[in-house]
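hey so i finally got around to running both of the ones u sent me last week. sorry it took forever, my laptop kept dying halfway thru and i had to restart like 3 times lol. anyway pasting them below in the order u listed, first the sequence line then the structure token line for each. didnt double check formatting much so if smth looks off just lmk and ill redo it

first one:
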Amino acid sequence: MSEWTGSAAPPPAPWWSGGAALQWIVAHGGRRRAFQGGLVIAAMLFVLSLGVSLARISEQYRLEARIQRSGLWMAAQAQVELSRMMSVLHRHMLGDPDAGDAAVKLQYEILLSRLNLFSSGSGATEYAEMGRLQDRMPDIHALLAPVEGWLARLIDGDQEIDAQIDAALERLESLLRQAAQQLHLERQSAAADAMGGLRSLHWTLMGCMAGLLASVGLLLLLLRLESRRAHRMLVNAEAAARLQRQAERTLRVLIDSLPTMVSAYDRQGRYLFFNEAYARFHGLREDRLVIGCTPEALGVPMDAALELALGRQMPAPFMEFEATGANGEVRTLLATAAPVADDSGGAGQVVHVALDISDRKAAEQRVRHLAEHDALTDLPNRVLFANRLRHALSSARRQEECGLGRRSFALHCIDLDRFKDVNDSLGHQAGDSLLLAAAERMRACLRRGDTLARLGGDEFAILQTDVGEEEEVARLANRLVRVLGLPFVIDGCTVHTGASIGSVMAPLHGRSAQELQQCGDIALYRAKSEGRGRAVRFSPEMAAALTERRELEADLRVALRGSEELFLVYQPKFDLGRADPVGCEALLRWRHPRRGMISPAVFVPITEEAGLAADLSRLVLRLACGQIRAWMAQGLEVPVAVNLSAQHFAGDQALVLVQEALVAAGVPARLLEVEVTEGVFIRNADAAREALAALRALGVRVALDDFGTGYSSLSYLQHLPFDVVKVDRAFVRDLRPGYGSGVRVVDAIVRLAHGLGAQVVAEGVELPEQLEALRRLGCDSVQGFLLGRPMPPEELEALFDAGRQAAGKVA
């Protein structure tokens, strides 16, 4: 059987070798304690076996002695002597010379001596009957007490006393005979017990022998296990020594493979060890000429961490320092040093660790740059721009507090116009190119101390420092508008865009970054609302206007939650052939509780900017469909046209809104007409086509509003025929004498629409000559102030009733 060696776990031992027992013992206390416990168990087993054997042998001796005791013999001898006594008396009465007086006295004395043996013992009797005899000895003596006197009388010749002597001896004989019988039975029982004890003693001795053998075997096993343990300890010690040597080699390879520079020094600062990274950086070799020298002797500078650990014998925190490598390159190192205590706890060696963090420092600077700059244009982002804006405000405030006068600067908030259109039509790559080109143009307009930042999307901001007068702010803003208004060539395509700029002076219009940015946003909003492509400087009146707009937005939110402030009026449409009303257009109105009537041109843009377009459209559709149902209850079927925002057609929102309104009101889809402008195709042309096709499949009529004022109208009409094409009021306005071009344009629209199977509706008819011109051109329907202004539903109902009655009279 091979012995286990090495550091791995030993193989399992067979059951007969004690391996299982050893495993159990080891699992419950450890090898050493298991060995000591085994010795105690073996000793206890040995003593117990020996003690049990001696006790059982003593017990068997006692049983056998009980058999050999003389109780039964004494009883038998007493009976024999009694019989002899009675025989001697009988022969004495017959005159036998051998049974004379002396013989009678002698035999009586012998009988008494035999009886006295019953009471001669001092300990416990072996039989119960012997105890009873001893207890009755006083009665026996009392029985024999008169016998001696009677014998004297008998010897003297009194023959009559013989009967009394015989009676006493017979009673004694009866008593002895019973005792003998009982003692015989008890002796037989004791013999049986002795035989059983002998058999029990046999098995007990065998068990004790087995216990002795087991204890000896256990001792031998423990000695064998201890021997094996000692052997394993020796093998493990040798293996541990090998592992230690291997670990030392592995540790050396590991330390040499680390990019960290590791070195060790004695208490005088002399080299004890350094790894490959340290040697490469400082151009050293680990040999006898180097080990034992100080770093100064080899021209290696000592950093503060190493000096602290050597001088004060205390650990040094991580410290950064610059060191020149063997190649002459200056690198940034992060180092620490700590003393290693010797066996007595005193100051011993010092270990020094240094890590080259030059690349990490460069990466941190790069990360910091990325965190503060825009990834596309490499301009400062919102975070860095906000920091510079706060720094400019702090500098201006300190200069003013020091009495050096007011130092002004300007903030310009810039948005590129129509950037989303470029992004959607030419793609995001073209949009990125446009942003880069715009950034370069703006950067060319700035001075050295100015800051241009991209805040996100197409939002830019400029910090114009050291502004002496407001004209400087205006000149820079106008120059930016001019250069950004020039055409861009992006991927071979000429792109026309522009910029809206809101400018604010600091600290005139604000003494905090938040105030300045809010004022700049207000001026930018004004520039956009005035038609884009312009620069606007902030004024306090703009803030008041913005506050008013926010109040209107808040009031509009309240009105959309179910009040009766928002309501519909209906402008009728008339058939040019019969001059009868054929439908109407629903127009939304707002009766403000404090401001009175507010024009849709004011509050509709607010809803779109505030994200309330869907709520507003839902309200308009609900009111329109509810009115259609009310008219149907009165027997009128009036088609109603509703304008929907282009925002709803970028997905399926428009279809969902229309379906919800139709289902809620329970009206037929043919009585609802949805008017959309050509701007619906700007956001997502494919989604718009799908939404319009779904509406037409639902049965809803689709009208193209303001035809001719958008983009690529002919292409839209060709790919998705509309049910109705509405001629914009700008073309109807030109239907006057002397405006031949207006007639030709409307004529082309009518012919094109009819050619595609669509009806033509002209809006904004205010003059009779316009109505007559449209009739000659073949227009189907018209609407305008000339025939009917927007009216409440009751008036429109009356108008349709009048038309129905007139038609009945004609019929």
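and the second one:
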Amino acid sequence: MKRQMKWAAASLICSLIIQCMPAAADQKTQEAFDAYLDRIYAQWISENPFQIHFYLEHPENYGIELSSYTLMDYSEYDEAAIEAYEKQQEEDLKELRSFDKTQLTRQQQILYDKLMEQIDLNEKYADMFDFSSLIGGSNGIVNSLANNFQNYLFIEKKDVEEYLKFLQDIPNYIDYAIEYTNEYAEYDLVPSKYMLQVNSEAIDELVGKNTNVFIEGFEKKLDEAAFLSDEERANFKAKNKELVEQIVNPAFAKLKQQLSQWQETFDEWEGFAEYAEGEDYYNYLIETYAGVSMDAEELFDYMYDKLDDCEERFSELLEDDEIYEGYMNSEYGFEKRTPSEILDALRVYTKENFAPIADPGYQVEELPNALRSDGVLAYYLTPQEDHDDVNQICLNPDALGTDLGVLYETLAHEGYPGHLYFFNYVKQQGWHPINFFVSNIGFEEGWAEYAARLSLDSWGLDPDMMEVIFLDQEFSYLLMGLSDIGINYGGWTVDDVYDLWETYFYLDSAEDVRDVYDACMAEPGTILSYSIGYYQICDLEEEVKEMLGESFDHNEFVTELLSVGGASFDITRSYIMEWANEKLHG
């Protein structure tokens, strides 16, 4: 059944921490393993000085020293640095393998498995060519810089001081990106025309003549900083404006000029599918973003089956004239409420239907006009490990529009019982913060979609209409995921993408799917986090339900799912099935 195209964009994401119950084991081994994790955590988090603040307000309490104010490690491709890094990796692996896993607590065992899986993944693709670009698409270099500085928390005076130091490294970062891109271009590996164009337009939007987010966003945060005196606030504003005008603006002007030059001199990028190394690279992206061990062809078949099921059920529901009319007019029966009113209702639902948490509450912020990217509905900002009472959900009103179904589902995905609930629930189980680095985004997004689907039943509306809302979202995710595989693994053209989408939608020409093609080409694999996780969780639920029969309890299943949360689906399934077998056989 063909229908008018209704877009459902993927919301951004954040990383989560998981919970498990301890098992009786050797305390000395457990303490040694925790000390190992402490060292690895400090080592990993220190690799990028700028990222430290997004994880920790006081890194010194974790033995981490902020010794430089750079946006990345520019020695990443230095031969001596690579040699030292590889040697350290070998030593870390040797120490990890020295632990007797059976003597660890259940939480530690899962972390052990996650670390080993990550090591195995790195070894599996050790010789893989890296096709990634520092320019990027809609979430590329310009928007990433603007968003990262926009989201830099000001909790104490020292945060403002450090922010201004990092700000001064933007020219170095841009110079590095230009040099990196030029070096890759020597091998005919270039950003797409789409990447170049969206970044050029973003510069005009973010640091143009009429607006500058590095000034406006900074001053807004300072005005809200109660820990500053009026004199300090004024001095910081003056210093920031001086740095932006003298350092930041010229750096972006240089980048824009370079982007323009590349648009004229670079050939159009046709993707890495044509390269012999492209197959390995895409399968690496699958394991990274989707959290499954299927290869691209297996995953394509899996998703196509899900798409057929989704379309069959969707068409069946839309045979009801009332449902069809409500869907096409975006009239689902939701009461018009503010985002805060919806989140408050979702908090009550979550409290009544999910395991309890010490709820820190939330803050809702609208993104500045210049940062309202078309592909971003909203995102949840993961709190710092040592300052977790700031739980912020950022909304893009322009992308959310007036569709109440999209708004309700998005807030459940990002807030309760989605990312915000999940992060706080699992953190409160006392997991080591290194889990933040080894959790899997496919599971995280899968949980957020799974939980959002459950929450739709809480509004007392027509259940068929609620199912239509959710199927519409999943249908778009599946089509986007199939397009991503086709483009980046199969070498599809725009016409090939059109052939897929035209099967389900009324389209005029291949240009109607140009945005899909460009987005998948610019951010390969990213959409898989949203296309796969929900179905993997549903498959696991069905497997356990069939295994346990009448003894299956959905709340127990969800609790166990949370207890292994953030892991790849191979690891998640192994621990869930272990629980199910124990429950079945006593």
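quick thing i noticed on the 2nd:
The mean pLDDT is 91.
anyway thats it, ttyl
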